Amino acid sequence: MYRFLLSRQWVILTLVALLLIPTMIRLGIWQMHRYEERTARNQLVSNALSAEPVPVEKLTSPGHVITTGERYHTVTAKGRFDTDDEVVVRRRTNSDDEVGYHVLTPFVLDDGKVLLVNRGWIPADGPSQTAFPKIPAPARGETTVTGRLMPDETTAASGIKNVKGLPDRQVMLINSAQEARRLGAQVLGGYIAQTAPEPKGDTPELVGRPGNEDAALNYAYAIQWWLFAAGVPVGWVVLVRRELRDRREAEAEERTTEESQPAAV
Which DSSP helix (H) or strand (E) runs through 93? Predict the structure, then answer.
């Protein structure tokens, strides 16, 4: 009755089913690992954003590499903005996906070290983006700045190519080592995305808070793959039973046809 399972068609179908089951289980496990990783990252970001502000030099120093646990922590610094050495970071978008610049201003601390401050986004003045744009001035004199601590940008991490030969006072990446060479000063590792004081006239537009990664989607994908894996043997059994039914019906029809034919004289 089940000899049809040894046919070429059914052998291939059975082998494909046997390969699909572990593959789908493995894909589900991978999605669950992604869910756990994203959930952990979301928790780190949440913890950092809710932590009490600390002086910036408690978390970073010249040459320091900002860790995952330090990223997004709110820090404060007391000093003054140095607009003479201000630069803009090319090809940055705002909340409406408009392309412009981020304003990167050195902030000279009371001890002489420099903290890089991303003051926010401004639109590009023209299509060529070769002329240095007009930038609203920051607070004058000694002030206290607050912001989220961020790691140095690299091509490997961001995918942004560090193009050379740019117009004067324009850069592609925010990188403390690169700025230390340009300024000839001790620059703290990483930079901060300014959150206070808020700029007058809402420009530059402050960089928004980081959003949560959609970990729940990976969880749903994991369950989906495992349901698919469970469905493969069920589907195989359904196909086998259907094949058996069709064969039995065909045999019954053949017997009925033979019985209805008149006997030979």
Answer: strand 87-93
